[in-house]
Amino acid sequence: MLRVGVIGTGMIGEDHVRRLTSTLSGCRVSAVTDVDAERARAVADVAPGARVHDSGEDLVRDGEVDAVVVASWGATHEQYVLACLAAGKPVFCEKPLAPSAKECLRIVEAEAAIGRRMVQVGFMRRYDTAFAQLKRAVDAGTIGAPLLVHCAHRNASVPGHFVADMAITDSAVHEFDIVRWLLDDEIVAVRVLKPRANGHGRDVQDPLLILLETAGGVLIDVETSVNIQYGYDIRAEVVGESGTVELPQAGNVVVRQSGGVTALIAMDWRDRFRQAYDVELQAWVDAAAKGGATGPTSWDGYVATTISEAAVWSMGTGSRVPIKLEDRPVLYAVS
Amino acid sequence: MLRVGVIGTGMIGEDHVRRLTSTLSGCRVSAVTDVDAERARAVADVAPGARVHDSGEDLVRDGEVDAVVVASWGATHEQYVLACLAAGKPVFCEKPLAPSAKECLRIVEAEAAIGRRMVQVGFMRRYDTAFAQLKRAVDAGTIGAPLLVHCAHRNASVPGHFVADMAITDSAVHEFDIVRWLLDDEIVAVRVLKPRANGHGRDVQDPLLILLETAGGVLIDVETSVNIQYGYDIRAEVVGESGTVELPQAGNVVVRQSGGVTALIAMDWRDRFRQAYDVELQAWVDAAAKGGATGPTSWDGYVATTISEAAVWSMGTGSRVPIKLEDRPVLYAVS
Amino acid sequence: MLRVGVIGTGMIGEDHVRRLTSTLSGCRVSAVTDVDAERARAVADVAPGARVHDSGEDLVRDGEVDAVVVASWGATHEQYVLACLAAGKPVFCEKPLAPSAKECLRIVEAEAAIGRRMVQVGFMRRYDTAFAQLKRAVDAGTIGAPLLVHCAHRNASVPGHFVADMAITDSAVHEFDIVRWLLDDEIVAVRVLKPRANGHGRDVQDPLLILLETAGGVLIDVETSVNIQYGYDIRAEVVGESGTVELPQAGNVVVRQSGGVTALIAMDWRDRFRQAYDVELQAWVDAAAKGGATGPTSWDGYVATTISEAAVWSMGTGSRVPIKLEDRPVLYAVS
Amino acid sequence: MLRVGVIGTGMIGEDHVRRLTSTLSGCRVSAVTDVDAERARAVADVAPGARVHDSGEDLVRDGEVDAVVVASWGATHEQYVLACLAAGKPVFCEKPLAPSAKECLRIVEAEAAIGRRMVQVGFMRRYDTAFAQLKRAVDAGTIGAPLLVHCAHRNASVPGHFVADMAITDSAVHEFDIVRWLLDDEIVAVRVLKPRANGHGRDVQDPLLILLETAGGVLIDVETSVNIQYGYDIRAEVVGESGTVELPQAGNVVVRQSGGVTALIAMDWRDRFRQAYDVELQAWVDAAAKGGATGPTSWDGYVATTISEAAVWSMGTGSRVPIKLEDRPVLYAVS
Ligand SMILES: [Mg+2]
Ligand SMILES: [Mg+2]
Ligand SMILES: [Mg+2]
Ligand SMILES: [Mg+2]
């Protein structure tokens, strides 16, 4: 029975506490903490026997904590993940691994120095059934070699504190990771184009069209629309030499009503990926119980953030920005 | 240039006048008539040079009429079709060929006595691209031998004069014809089941579930819903030994809006089958120009009406009603 | 931590052992048994600490078994479920509850005598996301009052020991349960129609068209096809007064290839309902941990088997068979 | 009865001869010509009474020719269209209007000098039902102001003489025209990106990703894939402020077979747009019968070719190429 401590009990942290307590196998939440102590106490009530700590560092030190979920504000990720590594405790860190490539790199170096995987980054899409099918079809050669990928990442609306960069750092970062994984290929350049702005987006430049190039010559276009009103919708089509493979419409019931045949779409992203979050965290629990980690690595987290930084730069300048990565430690060598 | 006379200039008759005048090749409307003389005159204005007759018989006799479209009230079909046969003029008769099997049979006998095809019945679905593809797939053995057919025939609403029988005689009669044609098989029995009635249907028993059995052992279920509000929707799926083949959703644009992915559906049946009507009537024009007829025969019209009569009987009694057909004249032998 | 004993470690029993061990929260498998002792031992290896019993009765008596899953051959269900009730242990029994209504009734009576729910029957569809959405749409009045339901239950193929009745007792029994649940209405009659047989089915009469009538006047048609080759496919459309609501195509990726746009379909039913099985059994674990049961009741199991018996009778005779139920104990009163 | 002369009786020219002869209303083919005289004679046989001319100029002069269809090799378009204008005869010219903007401009100037429309350019998509629905939805404000358009133009394969430019000048030129029309907006810049090449394309750089910017700030991405094997597929999705609207899958039957639910796709572009070609040419016949023209103008043809030239330039250099247009004659003022 893995005893998990959860740092950060906001919306996603609370979801993970419930998941670890009531849904997953082989784990329980033994400790929580949050900058908002009252909120931490409220969430602790969901997890029988969970104690509340004053700080993430205290939680990491707790002898009844075998492994840690970091779901706090991005700016604090580095310190908590490094604390876990120092304590030799497996850690699941929500995406992005850290807001800057520099911070991510320090995590990579710390883990590489240990010499075995301790960190899993929360890119849950890799655990989604539909994305897994997409990868399987690509890997099986169903469509020949991949040449293009068309993606769209659409949110019905975003909260008031949303700023333009976040369409890259919070939204498109999922695409940055997933296309690397889908294609087993590395992104070498990015360019961000800005069409006319959506009137629902106040001052935010929305949508964006982000173009990625891979080392292997694949071109990827990613639409991010963060105020599109109609729902939360994730689309991806890989175009190959002899065909394409595409995510399905999220499989909801079909209503015939008022002049239309309508497949319902989720408004909330958590509904779309609920099962992926379960599978993702179960995979982490299973690996952490053996002292290690699986799935998206610190290196993946570092690369995704590096691409985000380049994309933010491109959004400002309009130019094509090449991606420069540090040398990849052998720990993260592609198998 | 085939000179066509049109008897009956109601909604469908007027459509045919426009089609013959402005859309089809090798024809023009030279004469029209209607019980409502004023309406006949108004419609004649659409067709340059068309004269208006006082009666269908006058129109048939007109030396400037080479061939006739009968689109008048069903009860008058027999007299006008027989007049055309007597005059040796090819005739296109809207479905049903006649309201009773007895009337249809007199047409069959008159045409059989002539010994060559002169009559085409207006079962336009046979000319619809999607139905043609359905038949092609069945005939090609794509799904193995057909075993079941599931059909639905849905109208958003029906006019105030609609009575329960018409869900059979006006709506399901299309399915009676099309499954015979799809399967190259004959209907041998019918049973009509009545679920709880739709509140939008006033006194009309709606919907119905109609079960057909063929000589070859295929079972067909047909839902007729004549007040289903949401649109005009025709569906059919043929279930075979190794798969199924199904009509597509009518191919309208797909709107993502307000929590749904919606394929628009026609409210009006004329939109759904507009192209089929064009192809159907062009086929008739081309055959009539050579003095003959093609497509659905008088015999097909007689059989469809016979099934309608049995179905109406079953609706009253709830029992399974076998279909008894007269001997098929050699003129209508299956090729 | 609920300690679960599993009786029957065939395909579905083994699935449940893995699920209880590696996927679900708050439970572990403490004991297993099977008529095939070797198989029981092999499956026990999947569940650390599980002991192997010689008989179901031994397992039920085991002090380290808090609750029981019955996944053995249907003919043994009654004895094991009654043993659990006698021992005061919550029990999850795979469908059907028992092969005959008489056996089911004895379980109902035994549970009713205890006066609180102890039994959950394995109708997993009620826990499927898409079926849940279907029910939510119907209950919300999205389509007005339901009038008709069209269902299809298709298996690619069935094993050699399959006999014709099993299309009813093993397959359509799922539809019998789910339409009662969807409509909150009771089945009052059934009729089974037999079309021409599928050549892939050897001597088995396949497919069937099963017609159900509810007390409220809803008509349901269920196609069962057990040798349809192309895949495992479950379809349902509820037709209401102003529209319809339909299960989605199982949400697999879409491949454009070789002249077609193809949504992949599962060949194996376990893939289609994998998540439903997880949710179903977690619900049981959570209720059993409190000493009770939730979801489909013994009464539901009894009714489903009663309808199966009537349907088998109708398949033999071709006649409409009314459903007669015993009085419903107050324990199972509709809330 | 409009007497039409057809210059060029290759594949598309022959199609038009058949269409004018057997499908459309109010016209017949009175003359044909082709560089391959034998082919011209063979095609003339399809059109009763059509004579064969030695040259396009002869055909234009023919007193029995009221209006002309130019379906010859692109390099000859200018001379034949100018000949028609000189003779005062309405002309339908297949796309592109001419291979270079300079040639197109001479046509524009000649027509503008006459002061009324005489030329219709063969951008048939504007007459396609689905594209018309797309425009109607955009114009109705269904999705708010348009911000992005995603297009794909895919051919199963291309003939041996195909060179890389043709993916722009022959394929994407349709998208250049249709997005201008859809958005009522002008293209101001183009950039062509080249991913890794499809192995099926021999030396041809295939696919391309073409980016267009409009005066109003809309960004359009167009994938051209000319060797994608699986079929002919045209896709377009307009992304607006509150939703999107998308072309349907071409509405073919759906086959359930071998592990998939497959909507069939045309291999041949003529199947996809057959009806659009009919409607397009009927519109021309109707306008030509009155001495004028409708639909896509010479100006539209000039603009499309100008964008093609810029795109070809960009393909060579990789840079963003601004579009510079001459002043628009008042004849082509937007109404
Ligand atoms: Mg995540
Ligand atoms: Mg008709
Ligand atoms: Mg079950
Ligand atoms: Mg064209």
UniProtKB/TrEMBL annotation, chains A, B, C, D:
Gene Ontology process terms (BP): inositol catabolic process
Reaction(s) catalysed by this chain's protein: myo-inositol + NAD(+) = scyllo-inosose + NADH + H(+)
Entry keywords, A to Z: NAD, Oxidoreductase
Gene3D superfamilies for the chain: Dihydrodipicolinate Reductase, domain 2 (3.30.360.10), NAD(P)-binding Rossmann-like Domain (3.40.50.720)
Q: Among its keywords, does the record have NAD?
A: yes
Q: Which GO terms describe its molecular function?
A: inositol 2-dehydrogenase (NAD+) activity; nucleotide binding
What EC numbers are recorded for this enzyme?
1.1.1.18
One Pfam match? GFO_IDH_MocA
Q: Where is the Gfo/Idh/MocA-like oxidoreductase C-terminal domain?
A: 135-322
Q: Which residues form the Gfo/Idh/MocA-like oxidoreductase N-terminal domain?
A: 2-123
Q: What does this protein do?
A: Involved in the oxidation of myo-inositol (MI) to 2-keto-myo-inositol (2KMI or 2-inosose).
Q: Which family does it belong to?
A: Belongs to the Gfo/Idh/MocA family.
Q: How does it assemble?
A: Homotetramer.
Name of the protein in question? Inositol 2-dehydrogenase
Q: Which gene encodes it?
A: iolG
